[in-house]
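Box S2. Input/output pair 1.
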Amino acid sequence: MLFFKKKKKDSAVEIKAFFEGNALPLEKVNDPMFSDKVMGDGVAIDPVNGNLYAPVDGKVASIFDTKHAIGFVLDNGAELLMHIGMDTVELNGEGFDLDISVGDEVHAGELMGTIDLDFVKSQGKEIVTPIVLTAMDEYKIEFVKTEGPVNVGDVLFKICK
């Protein structure tokens, strides 16, 4: 009887849209570290506004000093890296206003901060933001939405062991 089956700890975790905008496959990201999946596999979003939301329920594992990249650890142990824009490390955090800290528990759809997209673009940087699963050998990805318009909370992909 499936009705009484316990929820397994290794069930799939949903990775949700963290910006409103347009999803695109990593192959279309203008940076070989992402388009060649050197960092891992995932999906990118070209945002239409700068409100940045948590993509998952999990813990903030790292925030680069320059605030352009955020690492998450999920309950199933998977690690995700969100890289806001391309070459944005060079902005030294300018235009990035994050309301989260390392060690914080976040919940999918929770506002984590704002990015001044106009400022980032005015500095000649792209705003396309990939999110990738970094430990590809341990987890599998099931893509749900990799192209077209997305709203915050739309499922981009699922990961499981």
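Box S3. Input/output pair 2.
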Amino acid sequence: MSRYNDKEYILSVLAKNKPGVLLRIAGLFSRRCYNILSIVAAQTENMEYSRILIVVSGDDRIVRQVDKQLSKLIDIENVTVLNKEEAVVREHLLLKVERNMENNEKLVQIADVFHANILNVEKDSMIVELTGDATTINSFIELYNPYNIIKILRTGSMAMVK
């Protein structure tokens, strides 16, 4: 249950690219009963490091505590709480929706409005791809809901300081 003062924070974690790092991070969140809203991890431009972006919900005190605890973990080089106003924040969506002759044109129109890519078209389904902020992704999904969404794959937030 979310409290009134809770808001979302994006933690950018630079970690050595070694086995077990994500497990230690997940363990820290589990032990402290903090909820991870999303997590995205990938190798950086330097193959020795990974960037892990974790979206958490809480208040300033909780986020400061998570920041300190993460910084103490083995193989963690740096933890930064990103300011959303000073970063480009995006999510990636793959959506598979039922398609037929009656709804095909409408599905394509919705994709066009959002500048989504149509990746695959089959006799009875279509897969579309969209990158955008959480609000855009949520709106897109809402417009496709009446057409029977078959499957959704969605990344968490990715962010880069401007």
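Caption for Box S3: DSSP finds four helices and nine strands in the chain. The beta strands are 7-16, 36-43, 49-58, 76-82, 87-98, 117-121, 125-132, 149-154, 158-161.
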